[in-house]
């Protein structure tokens, strides 16, 4: 149970970083932390005590293995996270080019 | 004392010259053994792209782009996608999508086995490696063209 609580704590750290920080780069780092917390949660759900990785190897009999489906899902999630992070960084660069700052309180064009 | 040539200091350049080939070889190893050990197309492609990014960080933009220009990266990326698609479509000769055209599948846990899966891994690694390198090159050396404030 403690590992789920730690996982949720990591998620909350990322959420705090997204909500509270003003620098866009720090917000992007917070989004990365949230993503890793969710990935960690998926892998933990598929874990089984004393299970080994579900990889077929030569001369080995697998009796007790962890669930491979969350791991495949997390692999896909990592790929999508990479693309999303690249997109957000590109948008942040355009914002910096347009406004000359990374501070979200100084970006006032969309206000009102 | 700042030297005229771009890039980082001499220490970083020497270490990079020693390690960048090893990183590239390790990425190729991960790709080629993707069907018998952990790893595969995506992980190996990322490692291959990281070797070029390492070169770019240490030596500056021009040296890395001389090894792999942005046009070449774009061509390789498209080639990877087309290769994967053609492997999939060629399966229609056997009856259905992604049909394994190799009649002799090979023995398990050998390097030359598993039919079309190593070819798919190579295609994915081309796509991922060239794409990631292109994304990094574009993001780092972004020259603003829009209106200034």
Notes on the protein architecture:
The complex is a heterodimer of chains A (112) and B (149). Chain A has 112 residues and is mainly alpha-helical. Chain A has a single domain, classed as Orthogonal Bundle (Helix Hairpins), CATH 1.10.287.3510. Helices cover 65% and strands 0% of the residues of chain A. Chain A has helices at 2-20, 24-45, 68-99. Chain B is an all-alpha fold and 149 residues long. Chain B has one domain. In chain B, 63% of the residues lie in helices and 0% in strands. Chain B has helices at 10-32, 41-59, 61-67, 70-90, 117-140. In chain B, helix 1 packs antiparallel against helix 2 and helix 2 (41-59) packs across helix 3. The mean pLDDT of chain B is 82. At the A-B interface, helix 3 of A face helix 5 of B.
List the helices and strands and how they pair.
The complex is a heterodimer of chains A (112) and B (149).
Chain A: H1 2-20, H2 24-45, H3 68-99
Chain B: H1 10-32, H2 41-59, H3 61-67, H4 70-90, H5 117-140
Helix pairs in contact in B: 1-2, 2-3, 2-5, 4-5
Helix content of chain A: 55-70%
Q: What multimeric state do the chains show?
A: heterodimer
Number of domains of chain B: 1
Number of helices of chain A: 3
Structural domains of chain A: how many: 1
Number of helices of chain B: 5
Shape of chain B: elongated
What is the overall shape of chain A? Answer: elongated
């Amino acid at each position: 149970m403690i590992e789920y609580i730690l996982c949720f704590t990591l998620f909350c750290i990322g959420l705090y970083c997204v909500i509270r920080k003003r620098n866009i780069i720090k917000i992007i780092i917070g989004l990365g932390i949230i993503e890793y917390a969710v990935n960690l949660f998926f892998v933990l759900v598929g874990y089984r005590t004393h299970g080994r990785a579900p990889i077929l190897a030569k001369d080995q009999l697998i009796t007790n293995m962890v669930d491979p489906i969350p791991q495949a899902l997390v692999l896909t999630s990592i790929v999508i996270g990479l693309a999303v992070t690249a997109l957000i960084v590109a948008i942040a660069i355009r914002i910096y080019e347009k406004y000359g700052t990374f501070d979200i309180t100084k970006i006032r064009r969309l206000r009102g | 004392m700042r030297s005229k040539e771009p890039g980082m200091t001499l220490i970083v350049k020497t270490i990079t010259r020693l390690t960048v080939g090893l990183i590239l070889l390790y990425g190729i190893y991960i790709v080629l053994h993707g069907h018998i050990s952990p790893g595969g197309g995506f992980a190996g492609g990322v490692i291959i792209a990281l070797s070029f990014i390492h070169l770019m960080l240490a030596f500056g933009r021009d040296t890395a782009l001389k090894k792999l220009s942005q046009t070449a990266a774009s061509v390789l990326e498209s080639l990877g996608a087309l290769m994967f698609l053609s492997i999939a479509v060629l399966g229609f000769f056997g009856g259905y999508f992604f049909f394994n055209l190799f009649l002799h599948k090979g023995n398990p846990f050998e390097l030359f086995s598993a039919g079309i899966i190593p070819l798919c891994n190579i295609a994915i690694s081309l796509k991922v490696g060239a794409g990631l390198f292109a994304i990094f090159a574009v993001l780092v050396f972004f020259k603003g063209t829009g209106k200034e404030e």
